[in-house]
Design brief:
It contains 15 helices and 12 strands. It is α/β, with parallel strands linked by helices. The strands form 2 sheets. It has a 10-stranded mixed sheet with strand order 1-2-4-3-5-6-7-12-11-10, with helices on both faces. A two-stranded antiparallel sheet has the order 8-9.
Length: 541
């Protein structure tokens, strides 16, 4: 039965399927927009892509699920209309089944939230995401095979979009994995769905007979030898070329990931890095603990806190602090925040607060565990962190001042929700401080001001710590390349230091293999911080 005969015998169904296909991109765009809106987009969603798909307490959750169901139904409806014209009915049914699997998986992603606030990951959601990433390309490939000679152009188009889906899914998943996503396959759903929406719209045009009308209108003008001549079937060479391209791309991206993360992966495979869980309140909290091959007697303990939407793996890879642990024989802890990070100074109902998750209690309980299991020196417990992790570092310095000897926030801030540095902070003991901040930091400006929240000037933050530690007025200034460090001697032998990196950006400074004088952040912040910690054990009584 030809496409024309099918349209004549089932005009309403085919016309409805075609119109439905045209609406799919609109419905998908609305659904994706709502997901991103309710996800409280901050600096990045790459490392926590599960935030895209809605917590149970989201006001949009009740809207997203039926929208996604409608989206999938429209895709399948358009697909079903196309398969009425199939030459190979069994293959057509397989294509339809693959589409049903993808639709079920997409709704599973929306439904299988692990908890009300998405503090944990859901294995069911991960499997559902894989059903989407496998089912949609499979449906397009099978649909192209089923259509066959009825429309070789549409068969080629379906195959090309299926290859694009597989490439996109692989690319986005590996990229998300490189950014330490807990469930990297989730990040690939949106672009794959976007390609499916494009296919649905093109299928709609085909079902409505638009390409045929265009061809009929143009061919008399262009002649029989025009570009509208019949399109050949896909050949074996083309299939081999597509497969080789996909394999080479996968190998290349995988090699990049392994090269960048090799030390951290090796540490975990050999057992030097171990992922542990501790229950704090009603929530299971996770952290990575690195123990060097030679642990000192009474080792120091350093917590390294990630930034927004990050995790411990990111910080272990980025900072290279394992090297410092090896050098000193100390233990390094890379804790995982929940949702988008830490409940730090400046957090409010719409930014950074995590009901039911007590970050201070989490760090305190982890200190208790390591003091008991590894006999760490209670006078050598330290905290450092980046960005929001640095903001949490300031908070831990205040609220755990009886246990933390020194802190080293990098590109952080200490402010109330209104931007003032007068946060509640009373020290049980002096806490030494080394703050590192770049003058070109556009995320947390060194001069203060509003970006995603209102930050206080770093000069006010340092002045607050000078007051808390009863520092002397005299200061010592040293210059190291683009960095200027100002230090004050404080009560009971503690120190407050501020390293200002002229031209430095928002990030963790790392020494490159090929030093570049024009890069002000080309220095080893981890080594600098470790040496500061060595020089500043817990003081006072």
């Amino acid at each position: 039965m030809s496409a024309i005969e099918t349209r004549q015998q089932h005009p309403r169904f085919v016309r409805g399927a075609g119109i439905a296909g045209l609406f799919v991109p609109v419905v998908w765009a609305v659904a994706a927009g709502l997901e991103i809106w309710q996800g409280q987009l901050s600096h990045s969603l790459v490392s926590r892509p599960e935030r895209l798909f809605g917590a149970a307490d989201s006001r949009w959750f009740a809207v997203l699920v039926p929208v996604c169901v409608t989206l999938v139904a429209l895709q399948l409806y358009a697909l079903g209309g196309a398969l009425l014209m199939a030459e190979r009915r069994r293959v057509a049914w397989l294509a339809f089944a693959a589409g049903v699997v993808a639709g079920a998986g997409r709704n599973g992603v929306a439904v299988f939230a692990p908890d009300a606030h998405l503090y944990a990951v859901s294995q069911a959601r991960g499997v559902a995401a894989l059903a989407v990433l496998v089912g949609l390309p499979a449906a397009l490939v099978l649909a192209g095979v089923a259509i066959g000679g009825r429309s070789r152009a549409f068969a080629w188009l379906s195959a090309a979009l299926a290859v694009a889906m597989m490439w996109t899914a692989t690319d986005w998943t590996i990229w998300s994995l490189r950014e330490s996503a807990l469930q990297p396959q989730l990040w690939a759903i949106e672009p794959v769905e976007a390609l499916a929406a494009v296919w649905s719209a093109l299928a709609g045009l085909w079902l409505l007979g638009v390409p045929g009308r265009v061809k009929d209108a143009l061919e008399p003008r262009l002649g029989a030898d025009s570009l509208l001549r019949p399109i050949p079937r896909p050949g074996r060479k083309a299939a081999i070329a597509f497969a080789a391209l996909a394999i080479l791309g996968l190998v290349n991206m995988s090699a990049q990931f392994l090269r960048d993360q090799a030390p951290v992966i090796a540490a975990q495979l050999t057992g030097r890095t171990h992922v542990d869980t501790i229950r704090v309140g009603a929530i299971d909290r996770t952290y990575r603990v690195y123990r060097p091959s030679r642990v000192a007697a009474g080792p120091g303990l350093v917590f390294i806190l990630h930034g927004v939407y990050g995790d411990g793996f990111t910080m272990e890879s980025m900072t290279g602090f394992d090297t410092e642990a090896d050098r000193l024989g100390w233990i390094a802890i890379y804790p995982d925040g929940v949702a988008d990070g830490w409940d730090a100074f400046g957090s409010g109902p719409a930014w950074g607060q995590h009901p039911g998750a007590d970050d201070v209690a989490f760090i305190s309980a982890t200190i208790d565990r390591l003091e008991a299991s590894d006999a760490v020196d209670p006078d050598r417990v330290y905290v450092t962190g980046l960005s929001r992790g640095a903001m949490m570092t300031y908070r831990l310095g205040c609220e755990l001042s009886g246990r933390v000897a020194a802190i080293a926030p990098v590109s952080g801030n200490m402010a109330t929700a209104d931007g003032g540095a007068d946060v509640p902070c009373t020290l049980a003991r002096p806490v030494s401080v080394l703050a590192i901040h770049g003058t070109a930091d556009g995320v947390i400006p060194i001069a203060g001001g509003r970006t995603d929240i209102l930050f206080s000037p770093m000069a006010d933050v340092i002045e607050r710590w000078r007051d808390l530690n009863a520092c002397a007025a005299n200061q010592a200034v040293t210059v190291d390349g683009a960095s200027t460090t100002t230090s004050w001697a404080c009560g009971a032998g503690s120190t407050v230091s501020m390293r200002v990196v002229t031209g430095g950006w928002h990030g963790w400074p790392v020494r490159s293999s090929s030093p570049t004088p024009s890069n002000p952040d080309d220095f080893d912040a981890s080594r600098l911080i470790a040496d500061f910690f060595v020089a500043h054990p817990r003081v006072g009584g």
